[in-house]
Amino acid sequence: MHEPNRTRKILVVEDDPNISALIRLHLEGAGFEVGVAYDGNRGLQGAVAGDVDLVILDVGLPMLSGLDVCRRLTERRSRPLILMLSVLAELGDRVRGLELGADDYLVKPFRFEELLARVRALLRRPPLAVKPGEAAAEHVFAVGGLALDAWERTVILPHRRVDLTAREFDLLLFLVRNPSRVFSRADLLDAVWGSGYEGYEHTVNSHVNRLRAKLEEDPTRPSVLVTVRGGGYKLVPPGTGPGTSVS
Question: Is 132 left (phi over 0), alpha (psi -120 to 50) or beta?
């Protein structure tokens, strides 16, 4: 949870000492508190152990890849924001990073003005999870047989708990807050991933498919996360009636 008067902390996980030093120089010049790790293991440890707001995470790291670090962070209930870096040729890694839950992606080489703009935009993003201290009715949602706690970031179906990645949870939370409303893939991409992801609608598809595998009794015939022909997706509260999926 961000405190308005606290200096925002950023961890740079980059094995090239020249690049990491330049990133640190520009970020500190912009008023951020910056730490550096030079391999994936130390980056993961620093992101988990420290009070870090954002991790700038290179894909090509020794010891543990940036994609593995991203995956392990997004599996946690609480995590920092993630801005991934890779060279232009690693387009597949860019897609994989977004699907794993990275909050933004920047391709090398980049201008430091663009990096600072991306960092500031991420840190301005309001969290989807509700802050402690709010009334239970404001952060606990029950739709049909599905119960979701935005504060604890837990999902419960009858007789079982559902484990989700951070991005899967954010997507489900958005849909639970808007039950039975149809959203296009572009709508969901903008609402959950933020601006700058135009053209990555397939990322929404993959997350919906993973949610179906975890939520639906029969993922091949979804009745909760329903596809609407020509429209997109909608959440039908479980237990309230048959879905009309045509996917």
Answer: beta
Q: 38 by DSSP, 3-state: which?
A: coil
**What's the CATH code, domain 9-124?**
3.40.50.2300
Amino acid at 81: L
- Secondary element (H or E) of residue 140: strand 140-143
Closest CA to 173 of 145, 154, 194: 154
- Residue 247 pLDDT: 38
Tell me the CA distances in angstroms from 89 to 71, 93, 102, one per residue in order: 21, 9, 18
Q: Which residue has the tokens 């959950």?
A: 192
pLDDT at 240: 59
User: Beta 232-235 vs 225-228: how paired, if at all?
Assistant: antiparallel
CATH number of 136-235: 1.10.10.10
Is 57 within 8 Å of 33 (Cβ atoms)? no
pTM above 0.85, yes or no: no
Domain extents for the chain? 9-124, 136-235
Per-residue pLDDT tens for 12-57? 999 999 999 999 999 999 999 999 999 999 999 999 887 889 999 9
Q: How far apart are CA 186 and CA 156, in angstroms?
A: 28
C-alpha–C-alpha distance, residues 146 and 215, integer Å: 9
The per-residue pLDDT for 241 is 53
Assess whether pLDDT exceeds 70 at residue 138: no
**CA of residue 233 relative to chain centroid, distance:** 19
Do the Cβ atoms of 69 and 44 come closer than 8 Å? Answer: yes
- Residue 100 or 15, more confident: 15
Contact 165, 75 (CB under 8 A): yes
Q: Share the mean pLDDT of the chain.
A: 81
